[in-house]
Records
---
Amino acid sequence: MLPPLHTVREGLRRTTEALAHELASPRESTPDWTELEWQLAMAVAAAHGISPLLSTFATWRNSRWSLFLTEQRTHVAVRHRRIEALLDWLDDAARNQGVAMVPLKGSALHAPGLYLPGDRPMADIDLLVHERDASRVAGMLEDLGYVESFSQWKHQVFKPVRGKPPAVLGEHRDTPINIELHTHIQERLPVATVDITAQLMPRPPRPGLNPYPSTGALMSHLLLHAAGNVCSRTLRLIQLNDIALLAMRMLPSDWDALWDARAGGGPWWALPPLSLVARYYPHSIPEALLDRVAADCPPLLRAVSHHHTLTQVSCSDLWLHAFAGIEWSRSLGEVQRYISGRIRPTATTLKERDDMVRTQLWLQGQRWASLSRGRRMLTWLAHRVPRMDTLYVVRAALEQHRLAD
C-alpha cells in the first residue's frame, strides 16, 4: 500500500530540491528526513540518474542510503564497460561498411573526461547517422543480435534479441543495452519541430564513430534535448549536471554555435534549461548569455522559465497535467493545434502510445494506460491523476525497503 499521495507528493518535492542543491554544492549536514522521505530520496536519485555521482562525495549518515548509492555505482560501472565494448564493435563495423556515425549525449560526455566510468548512467546508446545509411546500420545491428523494437518520429529503437530488463530500482548491470538510431535531431516544442541535425553532422564525415563537430554543437544538442524534456515535464537532474559541467569548459565563442543553425529563429528554446542550470548551479552560465538567449524567447515562456523548479518540470511532480507544455506555444495557431492533438490524437500518436505501453516496463499492467480517451478525460475531470512513471519508481523504492527489513 502506498502512503497518502499528498504525503508522497510533498516528500518527492522536498527530497528532489535537496538532492539538486546537494549535487551542485555538497554539504556535510545530514537532512532531517523521515524514513519515508529517505525511501523517496532513493526513488528520486534513481529516476534522475544521480545515484552514482552522489556516492562519490555524499557524507550523509544513513546506512541504507549509503549502501544504495554504492551499489548503484557498481552497477553503472559494470554497465559502462559493456557499453564501451559495444561502441568499439560498432566503430569497427561502421568502418568496414564505410558508414559515419556520431555517438550522442552520454557517450560523448565521457570522451573528454567530464565523467569517469561509473559516474553517469546511460540507459542506451544513441547514434546519429545520415538517412542514406540508416538501412545499412540497421543491418549491422541485426548482425549483432539486435531487432527493431519500435519506430517513431524521433528515432528507431533496437533491442537485443535476448534479455529482459530486471524490475529493480535504478540501474542494474544486466539490463539490456538498447540502441536508438537517429537520422534527425529534433524536438516538438510542443507541436512545432526544432531540427538541429545539420549542426551535429560531422564535417567531413569519416567511416566509424565521429565526435560532435564542436563543443558548441554538443551543448546545442544537450540544451535542445533538455528543452524537449522540460516541455514534457520529464527533465532529469543529470541533464542539468551535464550542461553545467560542459558550460564550465566553454569559451564565450563556443556559445555562438547556438545561433549557427538558426533553427526556428534563434535558440529561443534554450532559455528554460539554461535558467534551471543557473538556478541550481550558480555562476555556471554567463549572465550575458542568458540575456542574449532571452531576447529570442517568447514573452510567456520567458516569464515562466524564471520561476521553474526541477520538481515542476520532472517526474518528481506527482500529478499528470492534461496540457503540459502548452506555454511553449509561440502562436495562437500552435495552441489550437496542441489542444486539438490532445483531444483528438492522430493515428501516429496513438501508435506511439501503444508502443510505449508495449515496451516500457513502468506502463505494463497499469489500468490508466489501457483506458480509452473518453475515460481518461472523465477521470481527469473527477480527480487528479498520478504519473505512472513516478508511481513505478516510488513503489520500487518502498518495496526494496520492505525486503531489506
Note: Residues 57 and 123 are 23 Å apart (CA to CA).
---
Amino acid sequence: MPRCSKRTRSGAAELVPGATALDDHHHHKRSRNTSSRRHSKSEDTSFSPKKCLTWFKEYTSVEEPDILGPEGMEKFCLDLGVDPENVVMLVIAYKMGAKQMGYFTQDEWLKGLTELQTDSVHKLQNKLEYLKSLLNDPHFFKAVYRYSYDFARDKEQRSLDTSTARALLTVLLPRWSLRPALGQFLEHCRRYRVVNRDQWSNILEFSRSVDRELSDYDTDGAWPVMLDEFVEWLRAERRDEAMPAAS
C-alpha cells in the first residue's frame, strides 16, 4: 500500500495553535502503528503459493519433482513432529484430496495447504490441534472415515485387505471397545480376506449404535453378513470364556 505524501509543515506552528503537540501526537501514533505492523509481520499470517511450493520441493526428488513419495513423507512427518500413523495425517491427506497413501502430488499439496493458508512447517504445526478437533464433528469424521477406504486400499484391488482395514480402524477408532475383538475376528476368519465398501461403512455405524454387550444388536437388521457372523463369533467366544474349566 503506497504511503501518503508528506505534509508541508512551514508555518504550521503559527497557523494552527498546538500544532507541535498535535504533530507529536501523530508521531507517537505512527510509532505505535509501525510497531503494530512489525508485530503482525513477525506473526506472518499471510499465505504465499510460491513459498508453499518451495516447501513442497524439500520433500521431492530430482527424478520426480512433482511427487512427494514415501521417503519425503517420512521427512515431512519428522519435520512436523507427528507419527505417520497419527490420525491427523489422515485429516491432512483428506484436506489435500490425496488419492494414494504415502504420496502427495504437487496439485494435492497446493489444494490442501491453500485451503489451510499454510506455507511452512511452523504454520501447519500450529494447526494440528485444530485439524484434530474437526474429527469431533460426526459428519466430518464420517467423511474422513469413508475417504480412508479408497485412500488406503491397493489401487489394483476393488476392496480393502483386512490387515490394512485393521490398521485403519486402530487409527480411526482407537477407543471403540469392540475394535480389538473385530480385529481378531478379521485376522482369524479365513472367509474374509478383504473388506468391501459396504462392510467398511457399516463398521462405523455398528461402532456408533451397538454397545459392548451386544444387547442392542438387531439380528433382523440390515447389517452385512460379516457383522452378523462377527456377533455370533464374539458371543460364542464369551460363552466359552464364561464356562467353568473342566475339573
Note: The two ends are 89 Å apart (CA to CA).
